[in-house]
Amino acid sequence: MSRSLLIVDDDPQMREMLVDAFGASGYAVRSAHDKASALAAMREDPPELLLTDLRLGKDDGLDVCRDALQIVPGMPVIVMTGFGSMEAAIGAIRAGAYDFVKKPVDLDALELVIERALRHLDLTRELERLQSGGSGTRSKLILGESSRIKAVTDLLERIADTDTSVLVTGQSGTGKELVARSLHESSSRRDAKFVAVNCAALPAALLESELFGHKKGAFTDARRDRDGLFVEAHNGTLFLDEIGEMPMEMQVKLLRALQEQSVRPVGASQEVRFDTRVVTATNRDLEEEVEAGRFREDLYYRINVVRVKLPPLRARGADALLLAQHFVEDIAARLNKAVIGISEAAAHKLLSYDWPGNVRELRNAMERAVALTRFDKITPEDLPERISAFTPTKIAVFEPHAEDLPTLAQLEDRYIRHVLERVEGNKSRAAEILGLGRSTLYRRLERLEADGE
Fold first, then answer.
1. CB atoms within 10 A of CB 425
2. Domains in the chain, please, with CATH?
3. Mean pLDDT for each consecutive 10-residue tract of the chain (453 residues)?
């Protein structure tokens, strides 16, 4: 839908020029020549933005601004004038104007001001919506309204009541365990246990005992029989996180357990049956691991019946604000602090940051902010410095914290984006600077687009 503008100017030629220019740019434009007609137009159909001259014959553009904001509270107002004095600028801002531009008007510069004002309006509306309760998605484990995350939740709804094996992939911190929990809570298994284990955290011998169980005396410290996690999760869901880190000897045993739907506890002579849905997750490229001989191909195909690919947070747009507001409310309640939301300035910072640590990093940032803030809304000063000082064109190599250091692949992707920005999207010139063939660059860009980066 076109963004709506109302242009108020008593100069017919100027008015016509602005209407034609912004109409050609895709805006829905109406015009008025004086205060009375402008206010009548706003009452009939409120615009999203008002662009008014400071001098309107007998009328004062600042009066138009003040009265307009009574009719459409929060609407951005941009004041134009041929009298570019500091007093005029201050008067416009005091009257509630969003910005102030001088005549003769540079149309390209004015359009940038309008775009910025409308982004500010969208951000204000989003914050108000989130702070008033959002869109009713708070009961769900997976929060988000972006097309990428909706595709994930739609897929989860379709497979929730099946026993299909699911492989969840995505960068660290994107919420892979939440996907597994969401599948469990949405399925007919919800009344049984959800059990999670990190395969990277345990050596092979201990992992076998954890998963399959053991008999008393099977090894030192085995003082009693113990059911493994497959049996513990009987009729429920078992989540195997970081499956790509599982030692090869355990991969063989896991494959057999999944195929036979039974396990043999360490030291036992009998098999134990189980009925457990298995969800696995990894941040590795398992196809690459298979090719390198580090992951069994047969196990890969056994666990990868349905793949759920989680997008990085930077590819989810305004979901960062939805999640941040949720975290603020949750953490403020736990810390018993009267923090209700996020200021517009802080929201701009959250939206411009690229979130290498994804949702996990966002939650940690909000916990710090809620703990530190002295106000009822988070400000940029409450955010970690890496977020408050972040600029999108910066190629960060030396981060202050080890956990924030980018991988070589992430650094290459950032540099490719940086070069493209500097050459204004000229792919041939970018390929020349990067030392890549054009076809190679195009393939890299296709991958970046597919990953939402």
1. 9
2. 4-131 (3.40.50.2300), 147-309 (3.40.50.300), 313-388 (1.10.8.60), 405-451 (1.10.10.60)
3. 89 92 92 94 94 89 91 92 71 84 87 88 78 50 87 93 93 93 93 94 87 80 84 95 94 95 88 94 92 95 95 89 92 92 90 91 96 94 93 52 58 80 75 79 76 56
Phi/psi of residue 389, nearest 5 degrees:
-100, 5
Nearest to 337 by CA among 383, 368, 381: 368
| pLDDT tens-digit map of 348-365 | 899 889 898 999 999 999
Q: How many CA atoms lie within 13 A of 61 on its CB side?
A: 28
Asked whether 42 and 71 are in contact (CB, 8 A), the reply is yes
And the tokens for 436?
């890549």
pLDDT in tens, 78-132: 998 876 666 777 777 888 888 888 888 889 889 989 988 898 888 878 777 766 6
